[in-house]
């Protein structure tokens, strides 16, 4: 028979074991998981966002669950998977912004927090879902930097001499998209502030947001240029809208040295920048590294400290990449393969 002392020792040992066991459970439960869902996982842009989201996780002690969501069905399935794997919330660049209401409803039903990056959710009426935290490009401000860069290069080529005589800008517009309108509005404002006369700026609407669409738009504008037009500045909301415009100028007899096209995005301009000569001068490259890191950290603080991210975080940090520096700049943030 056990003595009272023996029984007491066994009880203490049992309690100690139980406490240690509970401690192990608590430790396991302390692992914080967040999801990071992107629409085109194969794209270097999103690979970089993922890499820097994971960097934030390593530095701050949380796990990032990366999932590709190329369509609506896979998006909703991925949210179920995140909940099943113990995630507390997720960052997403959706395959379709109109999925916003469905994504929010699914997240709410599963008790997950959600934040959008790059592409902002819209509701059934096409309005931005401003109640969902979002981090993305500051469209007007980035457009201004694009316009300023084009004006600077034009001055470097002395195109501003004689009151910008012979120099004109063709701006390919897509005003149906709010982001697109803000970018081109910002670009034009910067060109005007640099001294380019308003009557030297031609606007031409695109029917589609691709290279053929911008070629068609620029081709329709070229005959409207006055006879003294020698130098052309080509603007648009992204790389493709400028690439098509530049190609239209080439097919209409303008030499590459008489054309300055600067896009926005960077990753769609790499092949063009590899060419020895082109009217496509460069592109305003945003910061996928910062966007991936910052959104992941925002979500981590939200699920652990209850600090909700700002409803709108505008990113206007862009770098002009040209033939002279694009490989070096892209290598630094993992976009050069």
TrEMBL record:
The record marks 93 as: The binding site for the sugar molecule has not yet been established, but C-87 may be involved. InterPro entries: AraF, Bact_Solute-Bind_Prot2, Peripla_BP/Lac1_sug-bd_dom, Peripla_BP_I. Pfam families: Peripla_BP_1. It is found in: Periplasm. GO terms for molecular function: carbohydrate binding. Keywords: Periplasm, Signal, Sugar transport, Transport. One of its GO terms (cellular component) is outer membrane-bounded periplasmic space. SUPFAM superfamilies: Periplasmic binding protein-like I. One of its GO terms (biological process) is L-arabinose transmembrane transport. Residues 1-28 form the signal peptide. Residues 33-328 form the Periplasmic binding protein/LacI sugar binding domain. Belongs to the bacterial solute-binding protein 2 family. PANTHER family: D-XYLOSE-BINDING PERIPLASMIC PROTEIN (PTHR30036), L-ARABINOSE-BINDING PERIPLASMIC PROTEIN (PTHR30036:SF6). This is L-arabinose-binding periplasmic protein. It comes from Pseudomonas syringae pv. tagetis.
């Amino acid at each position: 028979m056990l003595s009272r002392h023996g029984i007491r020792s066994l009880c203490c040992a049992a309690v100690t074991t139980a406490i240690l066991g509970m401690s192990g459970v608590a430790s396991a439960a302390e692992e914080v998981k967040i999801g990071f869902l992107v629409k085109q996982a194969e794209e270097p842009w999103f690979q970089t966002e993922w890499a820097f989201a994971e960097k934030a996780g390593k530095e701050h002690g949380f796990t990032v669950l990366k999932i590709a969501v190329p369509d609506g069905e896979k998006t909703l399935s991925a949210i179920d998977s995140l909940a099943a794997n113990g995630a507390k919330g997720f960052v997403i660049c959706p395959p379709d912004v109109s999925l916003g209401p469905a994504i929010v409803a699914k997240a709410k039903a599963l008790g997950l927090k959600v934040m959008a990056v790059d592409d902002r959710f819209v509701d059934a009426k096409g309005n931005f879902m401003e109640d969902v935290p979002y981090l993305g490009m500051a469209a007007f401000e980035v457009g201004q930097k694009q316009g300023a860069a084009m004006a600077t290069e034009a001055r470097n080529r002395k195109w501003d001499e004689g009151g910008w005589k012979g120099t004109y800008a063709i701006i390919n517009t897509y005003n149906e998209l709010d982001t697109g309108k803000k970018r081109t509005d910002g670009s034009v404002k910067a060109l005007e502030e640099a001294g380019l006369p308003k009557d030297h700026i031609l606007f031409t609407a695109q029917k589609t947001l691709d290279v053929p669409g911008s070629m068609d738009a620029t081709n329709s504008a070229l005959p409207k240029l006055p006879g003294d037009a020698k130098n052309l500045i080509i603007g648009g909301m992204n790389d493709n809208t400028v690439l098509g415009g530049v190609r239209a100028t080439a097919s209409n007899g303008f030499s590459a040295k008489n054309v300055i096209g600067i896009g926005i995005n960077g990753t769609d301009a790499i092949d063009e920048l590899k060419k020895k000569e082109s009217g496509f001068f460069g592109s305003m490259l945003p910061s996928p590294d910062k966007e991936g890191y910052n959104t992941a950290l925002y979500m981590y603080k939200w699920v652990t400290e209850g600090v909700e991210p700002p409803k709108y975080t505008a990113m206007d940090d862009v770098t002009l990449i040209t033939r002279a520096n694009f490989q070096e700049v892209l290598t630094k943030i993992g976009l050069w393969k």
